[in-house]
Amino acid sequence: MKAISACLLGLACRYDGTPLPAEKLLSPAAGDCWVPVCPEQLGGLPTPRTPAEIEAGTGEDVLAGRARVVSLEGGDVTAAFLRGAHQTLALCRCLGIREVVLKSRSPSCGVGRIYRAGALVAGNGVTTALLQREGIDVRVYPD
Question: Is the pTM of this model over 0.90?
Answer without folding.
Answer: yes
